[in-house]
Amino acid sequence: MTFTTIVIGDELLIGQVADTNSGFFARHLAPYGWQARQVITVADNARQIEQALNQALEQTPVVLITGGLGPTKDDITKNTLCHFFGGTLRHDPETEANVRAIVAGRGLKLNEYTLSQAMVPTSCRVIQNRCGTAPIMWFERDGKVVVSMPGVPYEAETMFTAEVLPRLIRHFHRDMAIAFRHCVVVGIIESALAMRLDEFERNLPEHIHLAYLPQPGWIKLRLTGNHPDATALDAEMTHLNDVLHDLLGDLIVADNDLTLSAVVGEILRRRNLTLATAESCTGGNIAREITRIAGSSDYFIGSVVSYNRRVKESVLGVPAEIIDRENVVSEPVARLMAEGVAKYLNTDCAVATTGVAGPSGGTPDIPVGTVWIAARVGNRTITQCRHIPGHRERVIARATNDALLLLLNLLTHNDS
Amino acid sequence: MTFTTIVIGDELLIGQVADTNSGFFARHLAPYGWQARQVITVADNARQIEQALNQALEQTPVVLITGGLGPTKDDITKNTLCHFFGGTLRHDPETEANVRAIVAGRGLKLNEYTLSQAMVPTSCRVIQNRCGTAPIMWFERDGKVVVSMPGVPYEAETMFTAEVLPRLIRHFHRDMAIAFRHCVVVGIIESALAMRLDEFERNLPEHIHLAYLPQPGWIKLRLTGNHPDATALDAEMTHLNDVLHDLLGDLIVADNDLTLSAVVGEILRRRNLTLATAESCTGGNIAREITRIAGSSDYFIGSVVSYNRRVKESVLGVPAEIIDRENVVSEPVARLMAEGVAKYLNTDCAVATTGVAGPSGGTPDIPVGTVWIAARVGNRTITQCRHIPGHRERVIARATNDALLLLLNLLTHNDS
């Protein structure tokens, strides 16, 4: 199955915000074998919306629309869709009730713009938006489906997952059950993993498929199965997942579809361990990645961002003479930062970074992009030096990823 | 002038990475009066690229292409462009020299895939890419311009700013000088600002335009002027900028085109002040925003992320009985966190946050989205309570913005 996403909004075209909804839809439809054919981003403009819609319907059986539904957008998208699919606007009491509830819940007063959200095209089925005032509209024509959703990522993501995705799957895969198994693999490169799984993959039945989703330094594996008999499929998937675990042993560090910081978090939670970070060049970004995960307060104690050298000395206890002798960007300083923060915040585990994020501050010996990383679990600290090409933002992002990865490796392969 | 951006790459369509280049181009062309007409995202597929190109050239005189040029992409984009514009591929010695220099600079070995970057269409002018191996290709046909750039944001942003943007402006605004003045305004809402500048705006000459660029809680103003006489224009713009400053007084807190954390940073640097943050619900995100700015080590000392209650007590010195009595999410705790970190890290200024980012942890009295913020400059601390709707990521982002804004207000309107 293929689909096109149309992203509507002046704010996207002028670069005020970046579209993340189209990627979200694609990631969540991919496991079902659905492929995004194109993303078209247009302004809040009737002619452009209609043109994009015509083009999208020519090329794919499903069109997902996001944005253009705010009460200040003069209802351009809604009127355009109403005109496109025929019929008129009608007042929908259920939508009005939802709009009133949402507005009241936010402690706001209802105005006529917001109330106009209760007018919906007669040609669509309405799905109530429990996160916002703009209703979701489901249109069908000649076996094709067009779904219009709000643009606010929180609303689009929540409602797509809860309502739109299940309906799309039911609509297009009526008599087929679909099942997944995910796992996260570290400590092996993709080509070596593929060799190890070569026979397993070749022996998979035709209705079950293994996908490699490589990330920087780790790999997510996904088994997808399609079968009319849901019970039989589930048993088969569970069996194959067990075989996969037997083949990969402790290379598998998590059984879910998680981000890196969530994988680390799950392990910490399971083993009842606590974590702190000591950050120089990453400037708080590791703590931020960890605390993006809901429930991270169960294992994350806190962080010392020691941007200034004197914080490394006075708070983390790195001796001044070691900084002078070894350089502030060095193996001993990273190691002592990790040990210092674990001691200071009294945690079982710690990660630390010290590096040159750039664009200035580099030297011939320690060029921009050099980052020393340390990870500590219990009494064991390991370190790693990374040379990361690219600009400041990329150095920070990659150093954050690699610090979490080093901790993950230490947590899962402690004896290696 | 209008333009279309074509974004090429399977990794974008599957949602592995989000496109930020099209927004970057739009933001940097907008000051010259250029408008993005559409963004089309397609796979690494010759037919789709050609179809997007035809469509783009029908609708706008300029087409910017980003992505699809990596050495592992089988040269699909390059071959498609070569076929589209006619001619053949030729070996370009200058590009080969650049490829060799880039590869050597990264300490890598040259392979034949990378070397194939030196083959370029005879129909284009080549612009050397000093950040990567893929050359930038400039095509012209019937007065229209198509520019193909790499997809890696670091390369695309650097080369667009340094080479492509100036050439586009020279090409399409041959005999016209363009000048800008920016300023950042806080402490007034947009409608009140517009009333205050009503007469100023009405009296502007036709070749000078004032733009409002509203941000959450602050406003950027941009004066743009076009005139054949660059010297006269510059004098006129300077005069109008002075008038604007007279009209707005100390509502203007910065004279450049900066982000919020950079505005704060400029003021701290100018006044020789140092800053620390104490973060609970923002989890390090404020420190991250501050340290994204190159040179922030001049004023940013560090941060204590006190995610766990005991860090608030032991490190920041918030008394346990106050947390027990007032709640951890409360005015006194935010205030004591800011005072504590300023004392502990010995800084002139501080910001602090404590709140409920969600999705769990809310109570009827303190629902999810409640954040107490404190800002401290010298001996003065001010606080603010915010109720932020939306999901966890949004609460963190908005609390970060509002904490920086509270500090900015205190720094600039200390007596109010």
Describe this structure as you would to a colleague:
The structure is a homodimer of 416-residue chains. The first copy, chain A, has 416 residues and is α/β, with parallel strands linked by helices. The first copy, chain A, has three domains: 2-172, Molybdenum Cofactor Biosythetic Enzyme, Chain A (3-Layer(aba) Sandwich); 177-254, Alpha-Beta Plaits; 260-412, CinA-like (Maf protein, Alpha-Beta Complex). Chain A has helices spanning 10-13, 21-29, 46-59, 76-85, 93-105, 112-115, 153-172, 190-196, 198-202, 230-248, 260-271, 285-291, 309-314, 320-326, 331-344, 392-412, and strands at 2-8, 35-42, 62-66, 89-91, 119-121, 125-127, 136-141, 144-149, 177-186, 208-215, 218-227, 252-254, 275-279, 300-305, 349-355, 370-377, 380-387. The longest helix of chain A has 21 residues, at 392-412. The interface between A and B is large, with 76 and 77 residues.
Shape of chain A: globular
| Biggest sheet, spatial arrangement of strands of chain A | 2-1-3-8-7-6
Largest interface: A-B, 76 and 77 residues
Helix-and-strand structural type of chain A: alpha/beta
Low-confidence stretches of chain A: none
CATH topology of the largest domain in chain A: Molybdenum Cofactor Biosythetic Enzyme, Chain A
Question: Using DSSP, what is the number of strands of chain A?
Answer: 17
This entry's quaternary arrangement is homodimer
Mean of pLDDT of chain A: 94
Rg measurement of chain A, Å: 26 Å
Top-tier CATH class of the largest domain in chain A = Alpha Beta
The second-level CATH architecture of the largest domain in chain A is 3-Layer(aba) Sandwich
Q: In DSSP terms, counting alpha (H) and pi (I) runs of 4 or more, how many helices of chain A?
A: 16
Beta-strand percentage of chain A? 25-35%
